[in-house]
TrEMBL record:
Family of this protein: Belongs to the GOSR1 family.
Keyword Nucleotidyltransferase among record annotations: no
Transmembrane spans: 181-199
InterPro entries: Golgi_SNAP_su1
Organism taxonomic ancestry: Eukaryota, Metazoa, Chordata, Craniata, Vertebrata
GO molecular function, one term: SNAP receptor activity
Name of protein: Golgi SNAP receptor complex member 1
One CC-aspect GO term: cis-Golgi network
PANTHER family associated with the record: GOLGI SNAP RECEPTOR COMPLEX MEMBER 1, GOS-28 SNARE- RELATED
Organism this protein belongs to: Neovison vison (American mink)
One GO biological process term: inter-Golgi cisterna vesicle-mediated transport
Function statement: Involved in transport from the ER to the Golgi apparatus as well as in intra-Golgi transport. It belongs to a super-family of proteins called t-SNAREs or soluble NSF (N-ethylmaleimide-sensitive factor) attachment protein receptor. May play a protective role against hydrogen peroxide induced cytotoxicity under glutathione depleted conditions in neuronal cells by regulating the intracellular ROS levels via inhibition of p38 MAPK (MAPK11, MAPK12, MAPK13 and MAPK14). Participates in docking and fusion stage of ER to cis-Golgi transport.
Major localization listed first in the record, in broad terms: Golgi
Keyword Transmembrane helix: yes
Length: 200
């Protein structure tokens, strides 16, 4: 019975999903407005621009809003895909039932059709597993990118707060570049000398 019972119960559940989707979109819009007001507050003249805790809180709220929006769109897309698949499977199941009830003579073709239908369902299951793995990888990369952005913003805040640290970092970078050029020149000269020695 679990194979013949549809996962989605008709128009009542569709209406419930649409109502809930509208409510969630309104809540996300309100949360976006709150984040925008927080950003306006941090950019106002009376607030110190280098308050690291305030900037971290604002970035954290933006990340939470982005995660909520992403999860909502993913859930909505999954629901729409499941509903379309259920509609398709329901029509195929009706065709199979009508074919089985209408012609009891050609059972061999019916069995082949059912086997093909099972193969299609297995392929669909494998595709869904692959998509879920890809989505998990994408979410992991997104979280890592958020962490790198937060680290970069903290480094920029520190660099702006302490100009001496910024100048020290620039000196270190210049020294690294100079050492790389010297090392490259030494390697190049050694390579030329080895080639000259090898051919003479």
């Amino acid at each position: 019975s679990s194979d013949t019972t549809p996962l989605l119960n008709g128009s009542s559940q569709d209406r419930m999903f649409e109502t809930m989707a509208i409510e969630i979109e309104q809540l996300l819009a309100r949360l976006t407005g709150v984040n925008d007001k927080m950003a306006e507050y941090t950019n106002s003249a009376g607030v110190p621009s280098l308050n690291a805790a305030l900037m971290h809180t604002l970035q954290r709220h933006r990340d939470i809003l982005q995660d909520y929006t992403h999860e909502f769109h993913k859930t909505k897309a999954n629901f729409m895909a499941i509903r379309e698949r259920e509609n398709l499977m329901g029509s195929v199941r009706k065709d199979i039932e009508s074919y089985k009830s209408g012609s009891g003579v050609n059972n061999r073709r019916t069995e082949l059709f059912l086997k093909e239908h099972d193969h299609l369902r297995n392929s669909d299951r494998l595709i869904e597993e692959t998509i879920s793995i890809a989505m998990a990888t994408k979410e992991n990369m997104t979280s890592q990118r958020g962490m790198l952005k937060s680290i970069q913003s903290k480094m920029n805040t520190l660099a702006n707060r302490f100009p001496a640290v910024n100048s020290l970092i620039q000196r270190i970078n210049l020294r690294k570049r100079r050492d790389s050029l010297i090392l490259g020149g030494v390697i190049g000269v050694c390579t030329i000398l080895l080639l000259l020695y090898a051919f003479h």
